[in-house]
Specification:
There is one protein chain. By secondary structure, the protein is mainly alpha-helical. It contains 22 helices and 10 strands. The chain has helices at 2-5, 13-16, 36-39, 43-51, 59-63, 65-72, 83-90, 98-124, 131-156, 165-170, 179-196, 208-222, 233-249, 290-294, 315-318, 326-332, 387-399, 408-421, 431-441, 448-458, 460-470, 521-526, and strands at residues 77-78, 272-275, 312-313, 333-334, 339-340, 350-351, 356-357, 383-386, 489-492, 497-500. The protein has a two-stranded antiparallel sheet with strand order 1-3. It has a two-stranded antiparallel ribbon with strand order 2-8. Strand 9 (489-492) and strand 10 (497-500) form a beta hairpin. It is globular, with a radius of gyration of 22 Å. The two termini are 21 Å apart. It comes from Mucilaginibacter rubeus. It holds the Pfam family SusD-like_3. Residues 69-220 form the SusD-like N-terminal domain.
Length: 538
């Protein structure tokens, strides 16, 4: 397959280690003469090798697909002009969609990097290296591979399981594997990571708590697979067990300020369980370019980028926030008149002139005291999994198949998330309350689409209904107030009134098939087996 196999010659250790970072553990040695034969000789070599897996291989996913699929496709965000992103909004996604292709390629790029490291450790590592160093490195790699496969499973369903790059080169025509086997593979990798990662490590490195949190999320998702109306109780119990471990025994806590979660001074804070470790000043395509793509003004980005003026929240998302929920709202999206003193600080701060994205907009190199940070290399270590997510996973797993719950632990951790945001606590949980809380808490972090996919596994009609309400014209008799909720809006700071913007997008009504994406066209051409029925892996 064209991108699954990639050009393995490009993935030897000398190329893997091109990414640098201000953090000591990501500093790279001279590359001259480095090969897999002479590099893996010590525990410090292992640390350098695994450090590379936290950034560059994810860059293509992090650019547009992360928010395009997680938030635009789910109806949190809208970009009405980019053709590929419009397809995500309107559910008219073709196999030629560039965002679709970028995501697929990025995930298999990550997997290829993981596989070459795994093989090198197994075949090149001398016995003199401590077993604990080796197993910890293997845990890191398998955690990251599992995370990549988790994305693939949720977006495409059955996908090829690739463990050996060399075999793929020899036989590039590979089938997709059954979805239940993909989840089993993910769980096996994560269970190894749980058992072998340390309880504590250098900030930015994954730990056993990272693996347990991710494993809880995987079990919660798999609980609905092939179910009708309810979820598998054994998987729900496993999700509650691992999430509960993180909540009760990790010693970790929520960062007191929700707003600060998305400021670079708080990278890798106590709440961060897994985050991409982006470096400043790296070449194009190897860094965090979210800010360049989503910032509404060039004054916010070193190098004059900032092409996000046309991108903003939908009115449907904005209507989820109460007036009390102002901290999370302002940290997530700007309303006209909002003031952000930390952005363009040397110029007196930034005052929003429209309704735009705020989360991931961290400002200039000067704002972040990072001289080499440029247009394409924001130093925000955007999180993939954070503790608040695990708190909500725990609450959802304890709720399980019940219509409601007053379970003490479920309420305790759920309400910690709300209290941190400054909103009133609740006394009872329902599926709708948890879903809404997750949408608000994790908005613009690429999460909501995956919540809808998880719901679609066991209650597709409910998942379809949620999206259908986003694309149905409101029934207000005033024609000026009739709008599609999946629309952008303007805001009048004098009156506090939001007014939806009309757009000409024609949105395809969702079906159960909406929750599984088409395989990219170039992959279909390179490997026709991908169009065949999935086969067992185990």
């Amino acid at each position: 397959m064209k991108r699954i196999k990639i050009n393995i010659a490009l993935l030897v250790i000398g190329i893997i280690m091109i990414t640098s970072c201000k953090k000591d553990y990501l500093n790279r040695p001279p590359l001259t003469g480095i090969t897999t034969d002479n590099f893996y000789k010590s525990g410090s070599d292992l640390r350098l090798a695994t450090a590379t897996l936290y950034a560059q291989p994810w860059a293509t996913w992090n650019n547009f697909p992360l928010l395009g699929m997680g938030d635009i496709m789910s109806g949190n965000m809208l970009q009405p002009y980019n053709a590929d992103l419009v397809q995500l909004t309107t559910f008219s996604i073709t196999p030629q969609n560039g965002t679709l292709t970028s995501a697929w390629q990025s995930f298999f790029n990550v997997i290829a990097h993981c596989n070459i490291n795994l093989k090198a450790i197994y075949t090149k590592m001398p016995d003199s290296v401590a077993v604990k160093s080796k197993t910890s490195a293997l845990g890191e790699i398998r955690f990251i591979r599992a995370t990549s496969y988790f994305y693939l499973a949720q977006l495409w369903g059955p996908v090829p399981i690739v463990e050996d790059n060399d075999k793929l080169i020899a036989n590039p025509l590979v089938p997709r594997h059954k979805l239940e086997d993909v989840y089993k593979f993910i769980i096996n990798d994560l269970r190894y990571a749980v058992a072998n990662l340390p309880r504590t490590d250098q900030p930015g490195r994954v730990t056993t708590w990272s693996a347990q949190g991710m494993l809880a999320k995987v079990y919660l998702t798999r609980a609905g697979l092939n179910q009708k109306g309810s979820r598998n109780q054994s998987d729900l119990d496993s999700a509650a067990y691992y999430a509960g471990n993180v909540c009760k025994t990790s010693g970790l806590s929520l960062l007191p300020s929700y707003y600060n979660l998305f400021r670079t001074q708080y990278n890798d804070n106590s709440e961060s369980l897994f985050a991409y470790q982006w470096a400043p000043g790296v070449p194009y395509g190897q860094g965090n370019s979210i800010q360049a793509q989503f910032a509404p003004s060039g004054s916010l980005v070193t190098g004059g980028g900032g092409w996000g003026g046309a991108i903003g929240p939908t009115i449907d998302l904005a209507n989820q926030y109460t007036a009390q929920d102002s901290v999370r709202r302002k940290a997530t999206f700007m309303l006209t008149g909002d003031k952000y003193p930390e952005l363009n600080a040397a110029g007196g701060g930034y005052t929003a002139t429209g309704v735009n994205v705020k989360k991931h907009i961290v400002g200039t190199a000067a704002d972040n005291n990072s001289p080499t940070m440029d247009l394409w290399s924001s130093i925000e270590h955007n999180t993939v999994l954070r503790l608040a997510d695990v708190y909500l996973i725990y609450a959802e797993a304890l709720l399980g198949n019940n219509a409601s719950t007053t379970n003490t632990d479920a309420l305790l951790y759920f309400n910690q998330v709300r209290s941190r945001a400054g909103v009133d606590v609740v006394t009872q949980l329902t599926p709708d309350i948890i879903m809404k809380e997750r949408r608000i808490e994790l908005a613009f972090e690429g999460q909501y689409w995956f919540d809808l996919v998880r719901l679609s596994y066991y209650d597709p009609n409910k998942a379809i209904s949620i999206i259908s309400k986003q694309i149905t014209l409101t029934n207000d008799p005033d024609p000026n107030n009739r709008y599609i909720p999946r629309s952008q809006f303007s805001y009048d700071p004098a009156t506090g009134v939001k007014k939806a913007s009309n757009n000409s997008l024609i949105i395809t009504p969702p079906t159960v098939n909406t929750f599984t994406l088409p395989i990219p066209a170039n992959e279909q051409t390179a490997d026709p087996k991908l169009l065949e029925a999935p086969v067992p892996y185990y």
